[in-house]
């Protein structure tokens, strides 16, 4: 059986991803008109969460329900996973009962193991290394506001983290130029960067990275699991706030995105995130529509 998983954006081809964005926009229109669209009647999604979530949990749970299916929220605290049952065993059992599995966890290798032993599609709902679902929503949002992202310039400001890695993969799949500005010592993974060739440029100067850019994106300085580094990171990232000054060197029509949750006046000034160039609420809402397109794609594949 040829099961398709979504562990990183690179699991889907350029054409498949383009198709997903198109379908997400269509599904959103139907939803806004109040029209039922239920290609996943009777399907069940198991959702494993080993880290906190608001957007990802709600968008998957509401999304599968709107598509005619249902979801099970599985916190590691309440399942045998939290008591040390191997992920491979969990995967065999769960996938014999549900039609798809999402997992949010720490090590990316855990998601790979889950997929290896699963007889149903596995979706990465965030690991320490990647957050591919967020990128579907981000690309949908850019497309709705500014058209095709191909050949545009995108700037990532801040940590070379899971979101940054998924932006690098998005640059490869959607063919845009990605400038990354991070403090020394917080660069993204070298192999992930190498894979993108000359689509990605890394600098330690946010102003150089943001110049004439069409989209500025940032994220928290300390991700989930790095809470004890918060104070050190606040010092190290001091010059990496996205604020009016930084936005002023970007293209005049530049958009601002943040996957949320955000810390106002840390990684982004309140006036930028709450300002006119910010599309963070559309971006958050699009998690719902983009993941519905993803669920339909993976769960109806023969
Ligand atoms: N952006 C995002 O994944 O949000 P949650 O952590 O609330 O799911
Ligand atoms: N980089 C952040 C993203 C949260 C959605 C984290 O991993 O905590």
Key terms:
302 residues, alpha/beta, Rossmann fold, 2 domains, 5-stranded parallel β-sheet, 4-stranded parallel β-sheet, 9 strands, globular, binds phosphoric acid mono(formamide)ester, binds norvaline
Q: What would a concise description of this structure say?
A:
By secondary structure, the chain is of the alpha/beta class. It is 41% helix and 14% strand.
Detailed description of the structure:
- The protein folds into two domains: 9-130 and 284-300, Aspartate/ornithine carbamoyltransferase (Rossmann fold, 3-Layer(aba) Sandwich); 134-279, 3-Layer(aba) Sandwich (Rossmann fold), CATH 3.40.50.
- The protein has helices at 14-32, 55-66, 87-95, 108-117, 132-146, 162-174, 190-195, 206-210, 230-236, 244-247, 270-273, 280-299; strands at residues 44-49, 70-75, 100-104, 122-124, 153-157, 177-181, 200-203, 215-218, 255-258.
- The protein has 302 residues and is α/β, with parallel strands linked by helices.
- The site of norvaline (NVA) has 10 residues, from helix 6.
Q: Tell me what portion of residues adopts beta-strand conformation.
A: 5-15%
Number of strands: 9
Mean pLDDT: 97
Helix content: 40-55%
Uncertain stretches of 5 or more adjacent residues: none
> Which ligands accompany this protein?
phosphoric acid mono(formamide)ester, norvaline
Report how far apart the termini are: 9 Å
Strand order of the largest sheet: 7-6-5-8-9
Describe the secondary structure blueprint for this structure.
Layout: H1 14-32, E1 44-49, H2 55-66, E2 70-75, H3 87-95, E3 100-104, H4 108-117, E4 122-124, H5 132-146, E5 153-157, H6 162-174, E6 177-181, H7 190-195, E7 200-203, H8 206-210, E8 215-218, H9 230-236, H10 244-247, E9 255-258, H11 270-273, H12 280-299
Parallel strand pairs: 1-2, 1-3, 3-4, 5-6, 5-8, 6-7, 8-9
Norvaline (NVA) binds at residues 126, 131, 161-163, 219-220, 223-224, 259.
């Amino acid at each position: 059986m040829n099961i398709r998983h979504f562990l990183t954006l690179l699991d889907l081809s350029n054409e498949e991803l383009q198709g997903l964005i198109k379908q997400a926009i269509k599904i959103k229109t139907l939803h806004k008109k109040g029209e039922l669209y239920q290609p996943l009647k009777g399907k069940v999604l198991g959702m494993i969460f080993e880290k906190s979530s608001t957007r990802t949990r709600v968008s998957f749970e509401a999304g599968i329900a709107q598509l005619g299916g249902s979801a099970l929220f599985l916190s590691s605290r309440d399942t045998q996973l939290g008591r040390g049952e191997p992920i491979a065993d969990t995967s065999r059992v769960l996938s014999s009962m549900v039609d798809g599995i999402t997992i949010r966890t720490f090590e990316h290798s855990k998601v790979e193991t889950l997929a290896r032993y699963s007889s149903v599609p596995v979706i990465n709902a965030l690991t320490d290394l990647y957050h591919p679902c967020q990128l579907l929503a981000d690309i949908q949002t850019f497309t709705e506001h500014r058209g095709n992202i191909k050949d545009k310039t995108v700037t990532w400001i801040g940590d070379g983290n899971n979101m940054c890695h998924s932006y690098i993969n998005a640059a490869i799949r959607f063919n845009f130029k990605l400038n990354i500005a991070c403090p020394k010592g917080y660069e993204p993974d070298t192999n992930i960067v190498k894979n993108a060739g000359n689509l990605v440029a890394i600098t330690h100067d946010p102003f150089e990275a943001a110049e004439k850019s069409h989209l500025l994106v940032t994220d928290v300085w300390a991700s989930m699991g790095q809470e004890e580094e918060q104070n050190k990171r606040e010092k190290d990232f001091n010059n990496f706030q996205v604020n009016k000054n930084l936005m002023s060197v970007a293209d005049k029509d530049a958009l601002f995105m943040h996957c949320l949750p955000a810390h106002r006046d840390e990684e982004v000034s309140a006036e930028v995130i709450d300002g006119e160039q910010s599309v963070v609420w559309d971006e958050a809402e699009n998690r719902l529509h983009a993941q519905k397109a993803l669920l339909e794609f993976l769960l109806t594949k023969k």
